[in-house]
Amino acid sequence: LLLAGVFSMYFHMTLSYVGQLLDELSILWTLAVAYSFWYPQAYFPKCIKTRRHFFWLTGITTVISTLMSFVKPTLNAYALNCIAFHLLYMTWRELKKCNDKRVHRMAAVMVMWWALAITSWISDRWLCWLWQAINFPYFHSFWHVLIALSLLYCCPLVIYFDVSYEMPSFKPRLEYWPSDSWPVVVPYVTLEEPHKQC
């Protein structure tokens, strides 16, 4: 994530082709690592039996995607944004199995921030001429802020679901810092340790 931030900053300062590739490829590789470690085994393709095999599948797919990104770089941003649809689908599938209202609320807030972010990104991409004409070139900046807010809610959700699968003896619970009643909060996951039998 640190490299993604540094390369994103470099790209937006220089607006160079190399900066664009570094920015987008660092995001691609960050997503690949996240998928490798946290993608639920219950959703593995039938031909994949272990996490190790899934690492290999993810690695090969990422290398091929990396090479393809040099062929048509203008499609990179669209392809990266399409990954969000898979994440939204996975969240929807997990929410169908979950009755915790806090989890549903956090997912709804995450989707709201994502919808605002993708609207800003599309507006910046497709209506750039309009925003330049009225001297309002800020939608790309809005995209960065809004997608960061969406990820602030996405990460604890992924952790919550991961704990549910990987450590079923613990009961994960979503909490908010500094308080549930504040309008702007930082969500996190706590684990309720099971009682030990002597």
TrEMBL record:
One term under GO cellular component: endoplasmic reticulum
Sequence intervals crossing the membrane: 25-42, 54-71, 77-92, 104-122, 142-163
Reaction(s) catalysed by this chain's protein: N-(9Z-octadecenoyl)-sphing-4-enine + H2O = sphing-4-enine + (9Z)-octadecenoate; an N-acylsphing-4-enine + H2O = sphing-4-enine + a fatty acid; an N-acylsphinganine + H2O = sphinganine + a fatty acid
Keywords in alphabetical order: Hydrolase, Lipid metabolism, Membrane, Metal-binding, Sphingolipid metabolism, Transmembrane, Transmembrane helix, Zinc
Pathway connected to this protein: Lipid metabolism; sphingolipid metabolism; Sphingolipid metabolism
Binding site for Zn(2+): 12, 140, 144
InterPro entries given in the database record: ACER (IPR008901)
GO molecular function: metal ion binding; N-acylsphingosine amidohydrolase activity
Membrane topology of this protein: Multi-pass membrane protein
First-listed, main subcellular location of the protein, grouped into a coarse class: membrane
Coiled-coil stretches: none
Enzyme Commission designation: 3.5.1.-
Cofactor: Zn(2+)
Subcellular location: Membrane
One Gene Ontology biological process: ceramide catabolic process
Pfam families linked: Ceramidase
Annotated family: Belongs to the alkaline ceramidase family.
Function: Hydrolyzes the sphingolipid ceramide into sphingosine and free fatty acid.
Descriptive protein name: Alkaline ceramidase
Source taxonomy: Eukaryota, Metazoa, Chordata, Craniata, Vertebrata
